[in-house]
């Protein structure tokens, strides 16, 4: 039976047995260190930047090498339009299921104390959550609970403050606590969520940054493909791909999909710059989910257009100011970044092109060839 060939992935979580993956070894080691130190970690970044895949793979590595860490992985995406009572009711079932899953994966039978706790627990608010976590810490006293919450910003707005205050109280309660460590993942920063901003319910957070792929990481990613399939990717193709995407994970993998699977270039042929030019044209003219998210975000506020057109002109680009509401929001959406000269830059040439097209006829139709981006 022939060996299964892996693929470049752009949809949801990626798996090492199915997909080519950037290892992110340094970032993974940093995350594991913080978990072991009991940090309450937050990672807020734009969609399709590999957050979920990164956290889950890092957590799997931690729990495989040290089974005293007990992971509970939750996702709040479905709770966006729920009431707080509906949220806590659903959370009860989610926690029960995830704890049971961990025991099944470890081929262990949950102790009677755990089964009894899960069967008799029904969460209704932050107070019942606090009571449950205290009890869980006692019945799993030999385990260090690691709570990972994906899509955190979908939590009902009226439940945010109470939920975070419970975590803050637990964090400040001492070294022995449940959960031992927390990872909160989302798109919006906690400070952007709609709670009473006169107080900070989560000022103990440890911010974690997951950067875009470096050139070396993109090179390694394509190296995995070449080692497995035998098809060579020309060095200038990899360089151009990284310049055009600035290492944005979705764009890197989408171009890789087009180049290696959709163009049907014979595997004995090297993928060269003409192939890349064709793939690039396809990407900037298709309506993929990443570009759709980009355009949806830049159209959310009419004031974005004027700012983005100044940034797109390069010569008029303002200095990046994280305290400027519009700049900060565009940076959180992954649209702009701070350039080497301190000025605002659109994240990559592909986004630059799509944004200028979206705001036609405000600007002349062109794909920028600016030395700061392409050198």
Would you give an account of this structure?
- This protein has 375 residues and is an alpha/beta fold.
- The protein folds into three domains: 25-207, P-loop containing nucleotide triphosphate hydrolases (Rossmann fold, 3-Layer(aba) Sandwich), CATH 3.40.50.300; 215-285, Orthogonal Bundle (Helicase, Ruva Protein, domain 3); 289-374.
- It is 49% helix and 9% strand.
- The strands form two sheets. A five-stranded parallel sheet has the order 2-3-4-1-5. Strands 6-7 form a two-stranded antiparallel sheet.
- The radius of gyration is 23 Å and the shape is globular.
Strand order of the largest sheet: 2-3-4-1-5
| Amount of beta strand | 5-15%
CATH topology of the largest domain: Rossmann fold
Ranges with pLDDT <50 over ≥5 residues? Answer: 365-375
- Secondary structure: helix percent: 40-55%
CATH class categorisation of the largest domain: Alpha Beta
Averaging pLDDT over every residue, what do you get? 90
Alpha carbon gap, first and last residue = 46 Å
Structural class category? alpha/beta
Q: How many runs of DSSP E, i.e. beta strands?
A: 7
Order of helices and strands: HEHEHHHEHEEHHHHHHHEEHH
Rg for CA atoms = 23 Å
Number of domains: 3
Helical element count? 15
* Main beta sheet: 5 strands, parallel
In CATH terms, the superfamily of the largest domain is P-loop containing nucleotide triphosphate hydrolases
Q: Overall 3D geometry?
A: globular
The CATH architecture of the largest domain can be named as 3-Layer(aba) Sandwich
């Amino acid at each position: 039976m022939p060996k299964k060939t892996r693929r470049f992935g752009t949809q949801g979580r990626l798996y090492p047995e199915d997909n080519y993956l950037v290892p992110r070894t340094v970032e993974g080691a940093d995350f594991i260190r913080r978990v072991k130190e009991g940090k309450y970690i937050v990672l807020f970044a734009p969609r399709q930047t590999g957050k979920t895949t990164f956290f889950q793979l890092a957590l799997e590595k931690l729990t495989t090498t040290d089974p005293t860490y007990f992971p509970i992985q939750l996702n709040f995406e479905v709770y966006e339009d729920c009431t707080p009572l509906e949220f806590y009711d659903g959370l009860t079932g989610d926690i029960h299921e995830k704890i049971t899953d961990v025991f099944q994966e470890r081929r262990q039978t949950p102790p009677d104390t755990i089964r009894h706790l899960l069967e008799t627990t029904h969460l209704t608010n932050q107070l019942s959550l606090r009571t449950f976590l205290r009890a869980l810490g006692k019945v799993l006293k030999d385990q260090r609970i690691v709570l990972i919450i994906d899509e955190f910003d979908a939590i009902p707005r009226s439940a945010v403050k109470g939920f975070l205050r419970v975590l803050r109280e637990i964090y400040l309660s001492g070294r022995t606590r449940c959960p031992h460590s927390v990872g909160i993942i989302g798109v919006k920063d906690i400070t952007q969520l709609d709670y009473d901003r006169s107080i900070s319910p989560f000022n103990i957070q440890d911010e974690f940054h997951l950067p875009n792929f470096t050139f070396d990481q993109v090179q390694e990613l394509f190296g995995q493909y070449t080692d497995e399939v035998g098809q060579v990717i020309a060095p200038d193709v990899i360089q151009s791909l990284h310049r055009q995407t600035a290492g944005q994970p979705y764009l890197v993998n989408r171009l890789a999909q087009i180049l290696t699977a959709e163009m049907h270039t014979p595997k004995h042929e090297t993928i060269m710059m003409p192939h890349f030019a064709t793939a690039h044209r396809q990407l900037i003219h298709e309506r993929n989910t990443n570009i759709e998210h980009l355009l949806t975000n830049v159209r959310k506020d009419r004031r974005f257009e004027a700012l983005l057109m100044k940034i797109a002109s390069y010569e008029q680009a303002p200095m990046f100011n994280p305290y400027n509401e519009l700049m900060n929001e565009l940076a959180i959406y992954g649209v702009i970044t701070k350039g080497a000269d301190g000025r605002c830059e659109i994240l990559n040439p592909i986004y630059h092109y799509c944004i200028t097209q979206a705001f036609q006829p405000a600007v002349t139709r062109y794909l920028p060839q600016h030395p700061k981006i392409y050198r």
